[in-house]
Protein 1
Amino acid sequence: MPGIEALAERLSTYLGPEQVNLVRRAYFYAEQAHDGQRRRSGEPYVTHPLAVASILADMHMDHQSLMAAMLHDVIEDTGIAKEALCQQFGETVAELVDGVSKLTQMNFETKAEAQAENFQKMAMAMARDIRVILVKLADRLHNMRTLEVLSGEKRRRIAKETLEIYAPIANRLGMHTVRVEFEDLGFKAMHPMRSSLIHRAVKSARGNRKEIVAKIEHSLANCLAADGIEGEVSGRQKHLYGIYKKMRGKRRAFTEIMDVYAFRIIVDKVDTCYRVLGAVHNLYKPLPGRFKDYIAIPKANGYQSLHTTLFGMHGVPIEIQIRTREMEEMANNGIAAHWLYKSNEHDQPNSHARARQWVKGILELQQRAGNSLEFIESVKIDLFPDEVYVFTPKGRIMELPKGSTAVDFAYAVHTDVGNSCIACRINRRLAPLSEPLQSGSTVEIVSAPGARPNPAWLNFVVTGKARTHIRHALKQQRRSESISLGERLLNKVLTGFDSSLERIPQERIQAILSEYRLELTEDLLEDIGLGNRMAYVVARRLLSAEGEPLPAPEGPLAIRGTEGLVLSYAKCCTPIPGDPIVGHLSAGKGMVVHLENCRNISEIRHNPEKCVQLSWAKDIPGEFNVELRVELEHQRGLIALLASSVNAADGNIEKISMDERDGRISVVQLVVSVHDRVHLARVIKKLRTLTGVVRITRMRT
Ligand code: MN
């Protein structure tokens, strides 16, 4: 067998003879298990696991990963049980194979829900042993390299999945080389025409550019030599899919992208990187704002390098990356560099620790997320890292995805900081919480004890962590508020019959709970508060076992204005304290307060199962908007006059609009915020003192 022996020889350069033999044994086991099976290309099936192992050998992966690679399709395709592998090759290898098989069974093309669940499984498998994903990536890489033999539809499905799931994962793990190959092969399979067009264009452009490239390279090398710096200068080529994405995303023309000349300078140590930077900035003028120091602040996947852009001769832009040999290897292989350049066990490279942290973070998200769709939403954002770097007031660096706001920052600092945040200072200036953060800013969070997350934050936060925690906090808040409203609603009905929740025997409550299939009394109260169950109906069940009808309860329930998320004011009639009101319980939304004579509820107003009589408690906090229609004679400075009268009565204008009805009379619509009816009366009275006022009406519906 030349295949396995050639591999064994390569392995013996970094593995012991015993380990090489174990890999060999796994190969023969796989060969026998897949006996008779063929790949679509006609070759014996075992050539595939052998190729996968060979990819992993290029990364210098350990013998267990290589054995798992040999056996990776055995459980899935030959029906050999995991236990059998465990006996033959030990638990670790069997677990790896099992993990890879589970990933193989995933079908990401199904509905979003299924996709999300798959992703969770993937994260779990990775968390148990990160080598699972490396074997899987190698498997996928070989399948992508041999994609041509598949039918068009299947080929596109696999290519799409590779671009959407596996390429971002490789990127997240810092495996640049694998990612680029995934992207170029995926691009070719998805868009064969576009791919070959760009390929041809790149080839001809390269021919034209040869001379300039050589010139720049020469002058860079000379510049290093003049400063006595040893370094390796090489031209960089962008990969096809990268060019395509730039053309689409940034809507740039092909020539514009190709007009940039890219070079890489590789040196011996970190120190030298900065010396090189100085030297090239001396040679050509740097483009302001383009310098990035990823050495001091590495990217989330462990990438380190200095980036700068220079104005070359005749103003040609030159992009330069400066890094050490070690950083170069990390940039190409990411987490795999851990095995490739392992010096000693305790000294794990950055990217390995970061990859672990990422997987750990994913699992935490999963535990918080209410459902798998919320989860996948969070993970997707994490898979496309475009970071901004900001500082805490104490100078700590925080890394956040692009577009993150102060709220994302607050949650990244600590969940409690996020939950109690009320305002922020960006570079010492008060700024809106929704403002996207810029790299280099210092962000300070102003928090207040007892403050709560605002549902509106969900409209602008970017990180999965912030989103999940806000939702979680809102759910908690909503639950406790629903319980307390539910308790008040239920007790109100019960007191009408000389009873109360406390006086109902526990067994009776338990009986009702099990009848409703609920666990806790709180669950029942929550249901009532949310409007899913009617207090009147529940009270009847609690009071009389036979369910004989009770008369409708008397006396209104007082609204305090502190009910929170489960109580809202109807937009159709905008009630304010002092107005006669009723509460309409709508399922899942809780209580909506309407004016007693609002037309929208006229049909159900007297139905005790749907509506509750309400009154206002004393001193309701907050401001309420009402709309006023003022008809008055047209005059100069009319808006100013209206504004100052509303102001004089302590009211506040939220909105104003005016149309002229005829030459003489103007109609002004005002939205004014007031405390209650008495306050509104004061505002109206003040408005009436204006000269020329014909009529003032409060608008409803
Ligand atoms: Mn396979």
Protein 2
Amino acid sequence: MSNTLVIDRVRANLARLKLRRIGDILEMVMRASEEKSSLVIFDELLEEEVACREQRRVETSVKISGLPFVKGIEEFDFAFQPNLDRQKVMSLFDLTFIRQRGNVIFLGPPGTGKTHLAVSLMLKACQAGMSIYFTTMEDLIGKLKKDHEAGRKGRARGYNKSALVIVDEVGYTPIDRGECNLFFRFIANRYEKASTIITSNKAFSDWTELFQDPIIVTAVLDRLLHHSVVVNIKGPSYRLRGKMEKEEREVSQV
Ligand code: ADP
Ligand code: MG
């Protein structure tokens, strides 16, 4: 068979197997590989295909995960938040807490980087091949209610089955007794099975008021905190950073 025919057949088979990256680089690798054994060439092509697919998988997961922004931990300025325990935060990035099905709770006032830290952990988990899901408390409650009203357990839903779920902004809006029960069930279902990251602007002691049922609050916190790392951020808002400096300059000029 002529070389052209072989190349055509290889291309057709690559397309059928959806090996797109190999299709793209095949001729270039063949040209540059005259002295390499066929095994080495085969290895190079497969490595490229796998790397390319992996990158596409991460990009797609991130796109559909509902993240409010995509920022890694390398973009987090620890110098801006000197009271934050950097070592404690960085130790989470080995993802042991997910393998052990533990939880992380970020507490602190608005703008202190709670969502940023949660998002960067989520990106790391996604790169490690774990399933991820991002939601806010308000959004989650809406979804749990819909499942409940339709008599569904929602086992196949991302917020129930993902290895890592972020529930952002717990405490921004109060919830009633029924909603509180649904949230408890959500947490109890994930307990010791999969990891949840919670961010909240309210201290645990304020959760009672928020959930309007002290018994359920205790039950939620009991499950949530049993295997958990709590990161309390006490510091200024990054969002107000520039504004505060500007105001200070203006005041000192007066
Ligand atoms: P929170 O969830 O605590 O209200 P966010 O994580 O949403 O705060 O942070 C608000 C904005 O400021 C985001 O764009 C985030 O990336 C940025 N930000 C917060 N803290 C830092 C920091 N220490 N270094 C860099 N960017 C930060
Ligand atoms: Mg936030």
